[in-house]
Amino acid sequence: MAKLGILDIGTNSIHLVLAEVEPDFSYKIVDRLKDITRLGDGAFVARRLSDSAVARGLEVIRNLVRLARNRGFERIEAVATSAVREARNGGQFLEQIARETGLTVRVITGSEEARLIFLGVQHSMTLTERPILVVDVGGGSVELMAGNREGLLRGCSLKLGAIRLKDLYLHRNPNSKSMQKQMRALIRTQLEEAFKDFRRTRFERIVATSGMAGNLAEVIHLERTGRPLPQLNLATVARKDLEAIEARLGRSGPKERLAIPGIDPKRADTLFPAATVLRMVLELCEAEELIISDKAIREGVIYDFIQRHREKIKAEQEIPDVRRRNVIGLARRCQVPLDHGDHVAKLALQLFDQTRAVHGYGRKEREWLEYAALLHDVGYMINPRQHHKHTYYLIKHSDLSGFQSEEIEVIANVARYHRRSHPQKKHGSFGALSGTIRRVIEILSAMLRVADGLDRSHFAVVRSLQVRLGATITISLQTAGDVELELWAAKGRADLLEKVLGRKVQFVKIRAKGAAA
């Protein structure tokens, strides 16, 4: 299974979701972590992330990334939203993240945020052909999304996030009624304008996502029943209860808000504007209740990643080792005949293993030989003539993740010398290497030349080989048909093997049992 970490750098919170993608492209969440970092505090007035917010954010991100990697989650998709998107120093913040963690963070637009949120909701509840409205109240923005089981029909992003509204209208203590009135007027104006574009005010359901909507649902349920909310996902919130908690939050000071049972202390100053946005959405849609979804942008990023990387995920499940996977991936992209490459690799490794007493190399060099054998014909994609030289170029300049640069140089050179001229110091790519590495390339390419000759027809008529070491190296070939072409090719390419091993090489045919005459 593929391991995927999602890092969501939001205006209010920073989340990490660790997911395992199954062979059928479903996924399961193995852990969720978050920190209400308040990265956007003051950012929408000052138009920059404060130094303290940046320091908090970097510390949280470093810790979350370290935790993910310690648990084997090397692939991390990171996204950032409105606070980073709008801040003058947002780019500098992203550069610091890259320097300290190696992550490239994707800053998404409001419309892309809406698409990803709806994707997460779409896959978490049963939808019909009738449209629903999804509203996500974040710290910097509010996303409105209309869609059905077929997907997103329309989405928009409004600058009505709870931290933004708090900074613009609720920064005094206590909050003045006139400032609350201005805030409500702004919310109503933007929502009414948005709903004109949606061309309808009635939806089958109104679904709210985000931590603030969830905390409001928890507070309301606890106040109504005296018990904690047993399940957040698909919980319902009545409009009248939302109006009541909005009014209570609006007339309460900081201490009174913190005393409300169930309230998250880190959200106490932002729940009032969030409640106002949600209540007005219900009013304008003439709806009486909200349904809460605990799935949103992070789940949307997972589904989006799966859709965009299905082939790569499939390859990872088929070939878990990253080095082998990238080698085979390059071979497939270059459209080489994999059966031939596999068979040449098999024969080359038999030759390597049975001559170990002479050359003395181990697992590392054996692996280089195998990968060079799998890739030795990739140069055909450019041109059959001189394809061995094109093979060197393609291996050298392809993104073979998991290999050190010296290893790539060895594999490229071994593959390059599978035919035509022997390795020579006057060849720049070979001559620049150390004597130790040149010796490795000479011996491995000598074996590859013979193995490739033994599958000259590409029909695997030489099934396997056995080596007997003596004053002469005798290679017995178990065959399944006429092998004159293979013998001719192998004998013509055995000179380098004789030179590097210091012994003559001879070939003996042994017909495989059951093979046709």
TrEMBL record:
Keywords: Hydrolase. Residues 322-464 form the Ppx/GppA phosphatase C-terminal domain. Pfam families: Ppx-GppA, Ppx-GppA_III. Gene3D superfamilies: 3.30.420.40, Exopolyphosphatase. Domain 2 (3.30.420.150), Hypothetical protein af1432 (1.10.3210.10). The keyword Hydrolase applies. GO terms for molecular function: pyrophosphatase activity. CDD domains: ASKHA_NBD_PPX_GppA, HDc. Residues 27-309 form the Ppx/GppA phosphatase N-terminal domain. This is Exopolyphosphatase. It comes from Nitrospira tepida.
